[in-house]
UniProtKB/TrEMBL annotation:
The keyword Transmembrane applies. InterPro entries: EpsG-like. Keywords: Membrane, Transmembrane, Transmembrane helix. This is EpsG family protein. It holds the Pfam family EpsG. The chain crosses the membrane at residues 37-55, 102-121, 141-164, 176-198, 204-222, 275-292, 298-317, 329-349. It comes from the Bacteria.
Length: 366
């Protein structure tokens, strides 16, 4: 369990150190000192990325879906290329097939998927005013639980974060490619396509037309596939329930409400505000849908796609609430305390925490 706390302690400590550096720069730091700060910040993000992915890639029998992925890889190993594509989501099946032909195991797959997720988190965090605080908010659930448990969806969320960054930078073609890759790793990512399309298109009639076309095309493309039937049979028809789904949905709702309240104070473009406004509204909508849904697992897994709202809002929180820089320390400590509480409760009291605790590594010989 110590390894998880080290993973949280690093960005939490740097969030407070980063505040002090920011205060110093506002008092008249030189451009050379500021450039050194940027360089050091970038270097530390690389260190964090490597540290996290070593933890994820070297884990052994850690994560809720560990044995399910072991079985999936074993099946793909016996498949030809086309069979592998339909064994699971297309992108994941293709990657797994190539990996098995190279004689590589589940550790490499874990490293690839968690690497995509963590890189997406870091790229989003760097857009905020307090990047290390944003990363701290991502650690307890998105990086530890999702990144080290729901491998396919972790990669999908990473590609979604790439798409959001590309769309904000007005590279719509690149964003579309990332969304295709996200959907290839987990079919649930398809739900993000209309949200980002609506955010980018200014004309309301065209927005409605695009949403309708995407919804119909997505349904007909997926409805006949084996993967769609697996999702329908496994989650919807079976009425699967996820313990703690309400708590995880509410973890998105809080930041979503804050964003809708403070969005006009954020120093970002109108397009960026529109993207996060739609994600915020969707997060609140899932809280309404949850008690009405026949399967809380479906709503819970969809909620994961909107969880980056936590990263974004916490990264802007002190300034968004008009807290003076010299007093931001208390707010940052409050956010860190919140993240510590979430991680403490999850690691010790979650129904399926035993799949993550204790942490075993292939290096330990266990």
């Amino acid at each position: 369990m110590l390894i998880y706390w080290l993973l949280l302690a690093l960005p939490a400590f740097l969030a407070l150190v980063g505040l002090r550096r920011q205060e110093a720069s506002t008092r008249g730091g030189t451009s050379r000192a500021q450039s050194n700060t940027v360089f050091i910040g970038g270097f530390l993000m690389v260190v964090f990325w490597v540290f996290y992915n070593l933890i994820s890639g070297l884990r052994y029998q850690v994560g809720g879906d560990w044995f399910a992925y072991i079985n999936m890889i074993d099946r793909v190993r016996e498949d030809n290329f086309l069979e592998a594509l339909f064994e699971t989501d297309v992108g994941f099946g293709m990657t797994t097939w190539v990996m098995t032909r190279l004689g590589l195991g589940i550790g490499v797959m874990n490293f690839i998927c968690s690497g995509i997720l963590s890189l997406g988190v870091l790229r989003l965090a760097r857009r905020t005013q307090h990047p290390w605080l944003a990363i701290t908010a991502a650690v307890p659930y998105l990086l530890i639980v999702v990144g080290m448990g729901y491998v396919r969806q972790a990669a999908a969320i990473g590609f979604i974060l790439f798409a959001i960054n590309a769309l904000i930078d007005k590279r719509s073609g690149v964003a579309f490619v990332y969304l295709v890759m996200a959907t290839a790793f987990h079919v649930s990512a398809l739900i993000m396509v209309p949200f980002l399309a609506v955010a980018y298109v200014r004309n309301l009639p065209w927005t409605i037309v695009i949403m309708f076309i995407l919804a119909v095309a997505g349904y007909f493309l997926l409805s006949g596939t084996e993967r769609f039937e697996q999702v329908q049979d496994g989650y919807i028809d079976a009425g699967y329930a996820s313990s703690g789904a309400l708590v995880r949905i509410l973890m998105n709702v809080g930041p979503a409400i804050v964003f809708l309240y403070v969005k006009d104070r954020l120093p970002v473009s109108l397009l960026e505000k529109k993207i996060w406004m739609l994600i915020s509204m969707a997060s609140i909508g899932l809280a309404v849908i949850l008690p009405l849904s026949p399967s809380s697992t479906v709503v819970d897994r969809l909620g994961l796609l909107f969880s980056p709202i936590q990263i974004y809002v916490f990264g802007y929180l002190p300034q968004a609430l008009n807290i003076p820089l010299r007093r931001s320390g208390l707010m940052i400590m409050a956010v860190v305390a919140y993240c510590v509480t979430i991680q403490l409760i999850w690691l010790n009291f979650a129904d399926n925490a035993g799949a993550w605790v204790p942490y075993y590594s292939v290096l330990s010989g266990t």
